[in-house]
Structure formats: C-alpha cells, structure tokens
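Sample 1 of the test manifest.
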Amino acid sequence: MSLVAASRSELTKQFTTSLWWVLALILVLYVGFTTALLGLTFAGVSTGRLPGSSGPPIPIDGLAALVYSTATSVGYVFPLLIGTLMVTAEFRHKTLTATFLAVPRRGLVLGAKFAVGILLGLLYGAIGIAAAVGAGAGSLAAFGVDTALGSADTWALFARMLLAYVLWVLVGIGVGTAVRNQVAAIVIVLAVTLFVEPIARTVAGFVDGIDQVTRWLPSAASDALVGQTIFTAMSATGGEQPAWWVGGLVLLGYAVVLLLVGQLSTWRRDVN
Amino acid sequence: MPDGQVLQFAELTKRFGAVSAVDGLTARVAPGQVTGFLGPNGAGKTTSLRMLLGLVRPTSGTATIGGRAYADLEHPLQTVGAALEASSFHPGRSAANHLAILAQAAGLPSRRIDEVLGLVGLADVAGRRIGGFSLGMRQRLGLAAALLGDPGVLVLDEPTNGLDPEGIRWMRSLLRSLADEGRTVLVSSHLLAEVQQTVDALLIISAGRLVFQGDIDALADPDEYATIVDAPDRDALLHLLDERGIGYQVLRNGVTVRHSEPAELGALAAGAGIALSSLQRKGASLEEIFLDLVSGARVHPSAAGDGPVAAPAEDAAAPEATAPDVAPARADWAAPDAATVETPPTPASEEQR
C-alpha cells in the first residue's frame, strides 16, 4: 500500500470504463469544430476576404495563437469534468467502499487521484491541442494566414495550455471531492462554466470595476495563464490581465482550496 | 497463508443523531471457526462491520483486527477480505478489471485475479461487464475480491443473498474449509436457519445491542425441554394431566408438557391404563430462542456486558438459570408458535439426548 500502488490502481480505474475515450472523442469533435469555425471566420475577416464583415478589425498578427487557444478557452470544461468524475463516480457507483478497503489511508487515495489527474490533464491537453492545431492550422492555411507553427512562442503557448489542462483536472478533483454527488457536481460545473462565468465576464467588459473581480474567476485565471484567447481578445477594453504564472497560481489555488474543503468534509465521512 | 486474527469489538457505539445504530457492542470473534453475526434487519450488523473495516467512524469504542485498527494494517487486503454489498461495482467495468484495480492497490500479482475468479466460478465471465451480472454473480465477485489477498480474516455481509440453493451449499462448504484452515470467518445474516448449519459460534445483536455471544450449542438452554405426548383417547390423557396438576399445551402435533421426561409421562399413562400414540422428547427450537433473544423476551447471561471483554463464552453460558421472565413470554405460545414446534431437531437438541 503505497502512493505508487494506489496511483497504478487509480490509473487502471480511469481506463477500464468507456468514459475516457467517449470524453476524448467529444473533446476532439467539440474543439475541432469550434476552432475550425473561429479560424475560418477570423482569417476571413482579418484578410478582408470574408464579405460583409463589420466587426472590429482583427490583426493578422497573433491570430494563430488566438485560434489555437480555443482548446483551453472553450475546451477547459472537459478536463474539469474529467477531474470531477474521477471522484464522483466513486460515490455514484459506491466503489469507494472497495477503494477504501484496499487503501484505508484516505489521504493516499486523494494523493493518487491527484497524481493520475496530472497524467490525465497531460493526455487530454495533448488531445485538445492536437484537435485545435489540426482544425485551426487548416482553416488559417485556407486563407493563407501564417499558422505560426514554427514559432517558439506558439510552442510556449502549447506548454501553457497543457499546464492549464492539468490544473483544470485538479480543480475538477477538488469539485468532486467537495460536492460528492455526481449529478449535483456536473450541474454545478456546467452552470458555472456555461452561464455564470461567461455572463459575469461579459458584463465586466461593459461595466467598470467588475473586471477587478471577474479577472480572478477560474476561467479568467486560465485565460491569463494561457495568454491570447478569444475572451481576452473580446474584452480588450478591460484592464491588463495578470501575468501568466499568476493565472496559473490562482487556478492551482482553486484546486487546493476545493481539495482541502473536500478532504476535511466529505472525504472523512462515513462510507455507506 | 496469513494467520487468522482475533476480531475484537470493545464498547463499540455508533449514533446517528439520537438513534443508536450500535450501542456498546463488546464481543470477540475467534479464528478457526465460522462465526455467525445475527440480528434482524436494522439491528446494526452492517454498521458494526463497516466500523470494523474503517469505513464508518465509531462514535465511541473500538473494533480491532488482531489488536489493530483496520486503517493501521500494513497490508489490508492480505489481512482482511471483506464482501459488504453486492451493488458496489462500476457497471461498465469487467469483473477482471474490478479485481485488477484492487490487486494493484494492494500490490498483489495479477495471477491472483484468475485464481480467485476460477475459485468462485466466474472464470468464464471474467471479461464481461459487471452491469450484466445477476445478483448471485455479483455476490461471487464480491467474494472473489475478498479472497484476492488470501487473507486470514474474512468478513462477509449476507453472502448468501441472491445465491441459488446450490450456490448456498457451495458457499457453506467454502466457509467451512476456510475456517478449518485456521482463518477467522465472520458471516452476517438475518436468518438463523441460513447459518445454523455452518456456524460454530454466534453473535446475536438486536437494536444495536449484543444479546448473545458464544457457541451455537450454548444457545439452547439445557433445562429447557418438553415432552410431546398424545393418545387416541386424548380426553383421558388431558384429564390425567389435570388431575396430577401437570401443565400442558395442546398443539397440532400433540400435547406438549414442559420440563418433563418421556419416561415419567409414559409411566403415568401406563398406570392410568391409557394407551399412547406418541411420546417423544424435544429440545427448545433454536429459531424460537433466537427470536426471543432478539425481541428481548429472553435474556442470555453472555450478553450482560459487564464481564471482562475476552471472557470465554462457554464460561458465561454454563451456570444457566431459566430466566424468570421466560415463562410469561411463553404464555402466548399456542397459535403462532405451533409451526416452530414442528421444526426438526436441531444439533443442540440432538446433543441433549
């Protein structure tokens, strides 16, 4: 009974149900489709080849980064869900009994989930980035816009995106541990990512002062970590965002606080 | 094979709000025998077992395995194998993968997976999703998980639920052979009849409290016996008994006379010239004693709880006195209990002959 053994067991858990590849498939389709659409639109508008475009001019410079980062700015809900389900599935199917019988030191179980969460974050990050690059570079190239794949900045962006995926899985583990009920956790995740945060951040784009708060929201922190994203581009009027590493630390902070809350509450409870 | 360990419950208590699910349970489970853990539904059996396994935190008291709490075991699955309920599997996972997860966590070689699946008769469905398993197959898989680490202690919660008669017989012989190897086997059930043929010792709880602990032989009160007598001319027989002031009850299978030997009644009838059609001795029915213990109508000294924790049950059970409150409880013996009187002789009553 060690962290290594517990992590191996945890890893097997993730890859012995169909959830992982179903989510990976949806991630590829979702990110690929969105990126292709954005890539075609932006490339068309900025090159002036898309007729009837009325929006603000989008500079061709940095367009590639903007398109690629869709994998995190839109796709972050996937690592968040994966992390959440890593924990809530154990409550949902009552497998926590078997888990705790094999590893009665509960902190060790959480540690193993954390370790495997990092691996899953890297895996899904790679898949998400690959989908975004495949669809994004294709649509940019269609308009003759530079795909910037030879640029070191682009690869630094990919590295930050991978980190964001890892951190989002950890936040998800925190959410799952703190909430425990699978349906409730999924509803909370979807409500926050699809409604609460986008609305708050959109409002912050128009109302002064609110952005002082909204820039510390998890998704805003994630965008700050990644850099150029569609949301930061749209709220260009907003003040400067925190440095990338500050964004990363804020996201990590969410993960740690949620994990601590879970560890001190639900994780210690009786397992029935 | 790891040694069987002594399981010790010491003043174990679990309260949910104002309700005591388990109340001051003190008991000892010895290795080398099958111990039945009996009580009606809701008596606190599962909660007690979950506390023993570190899944539920006791309000007070302790439950230990060989003197250690479950969470402190170096190699939990190699020490204790537990099968708690037949529903705690991910339906999308295969049986073999379910066991692989446990084997990896415990550092067990993967060949153990095939071994235990073969042992419980699930080798053919190792790769099938558990979601398609019947209750009986889930019970077998739960048992396979318990046996995975070849543990010296087995804790099984209602293991025969959902098994067909053949499966139940198989389970009984398996438990017997595991105990004969020196392992500690604790099996819960809400039916005495289900474990009666298998167990050597019993723990009976009711409403969270221990009501009996000891060998199954000690459950039957040796003072408690009766003779069933009947005659073609039953009126004459009853008249004779009335005349002699001997109490009796007329049941479906004859006239039951408590605390009296067949020889006495036979001689009596012969003296009065009454021909008998039946004369037989009968020990108390274990099922009846079990129900009385559970309902509180009968109190067994082994459940006093004041004695030393590890007091051997035999000692506690020996100086048995027929509790004075047994008699009134028996007053309403007639109708509903008529069926239990019919039960075939139990091992305990056979011994008394």
